[in-house]
């Protein structure tokens, strides 16, 4: 019998497998995807958000704990577990050396309109390179890896893990880490979560899945139905406004439209519906998918002029281009009269001060609803560009409730040998909203904790001390304590 079974194949699962193996446990990792699609949503990531009190290797200036917490508090609207959130924040300060040990490389700080040179550490080669590095390290350490291995059931004895099932196959282990992702690829579950709106539409029918096609939520649903304590709103997710021409699955970062704060966004009635300049883009990009999802036909249009070009990361598809605003309206299929009225009202309302997209500048609107708080400049310089937007779901926030040992709970009581990490528990920290890189911070932190705790639990079973968790001291917990000292 193996010591630790890890179910999942992304960042959190790999961190758990590596930590469990480093702690001396025998480890098997089950990835539902084929090898060429391994890594879940982690293959589409680029960075993780890191606390630091002074300049550190690839991070400039300082990003102290309290600022990180306030950023998270703002985007979640307070729907977060502060104890677990601060655990993630502190752990984010000291994980990079461990990541490097397992083959992850970081690139120098980014500058410009992304506003993240101070807060986020970027992986050299992106998430795909990170995932590949972790798989290589896991293989070198002797972790057994199986692909095309979708677990569809968990065998429990009360709150204790006994075995996982893949169809008729049964795999026993002394402890288990669940890290199999959310349910964003399950269209029926998304329909159920979002329901039907007042216009008689089923919004989820128009969602694109920015992340992996393999996150169907089978294991999450099984655990909730088996009595595991759940947390989070099933309609909340990392939901980004992406190019409407993006593929149904696995579009990744290149389909995101990053020029929203530099112009205006209209719905299919050619009307504005939210403050495009509310805050820096990394703190607001993940609300725009939900905003577009609330509009008729779940579509929006990001409109900019030539002044914005070069100030944002260009998407994979070029925008619709026109030499005049009326021409752009016609090309986008929007009512020309309403389009021009909306743009003219916005242009007249702009109070242009000193434009600077790297700070919260004083360029704003007056006398128009909704207001634009920052970076408001008239759209008056040809050529003009338009990008059609659809909601792009990256991962869902409904998950399993945990404590700071990453233990799955049943009726409020933590399991002694069943743990969870990554998207399957991110809702403990992310009740709603998002700020760039925090998903990887959560997955890395709780993956490392879950793996170490699972190794301890397996060792206790082998020693005949199952259930005795007093005086347990995991390396992950020690790391976190060191980070706050």
From TrEMBL:
First-tier enzyme category under EC: oxidoreductase
InterPro entries in alphabetical order: CobZ, FAD-dep_OxRdtase_2_FAD-bd, FAD-oxidoreductase_2, FAD/NAD-bd_sf, Succ_DH/fumarate_Rdtase_cat_sf
SUPFAM superfamilies reported for this sequence: FAD/NAD(P)-binding domain (SSF51905), Succinate dehydrogenase/fumarate reductase flavoprotein, catalytic domain (SSF56425)
EC number: 1.3.5.4
Region of interest (Disordered), residue spans: 466-485
Pfam families for the chain: FAD_binding_2
Cofactor section: FAD
Residue ranges occupied by any FAD-dependent oxidoreductase 2 FAD-binding domain in the UniProt entry: 3-429
Gene3D superfamilies assigned: FAD/NAD(P)-binding domain, Succinate dehydrogenase/fumarate reductase flavoprotein, catalytic domain
UniProt keyword annotation of Secreted present: no
Record key words, sorted: FAD, Flavoprotein, Oxidoreductase
Signal peptide: none
Gene Ontology terms, MF aspect: oxidoreductase activity
Name assigned to this protein: Fumarate reductase flavoprotein subunit
Source organism per UniProt: Cupriavidus pampae
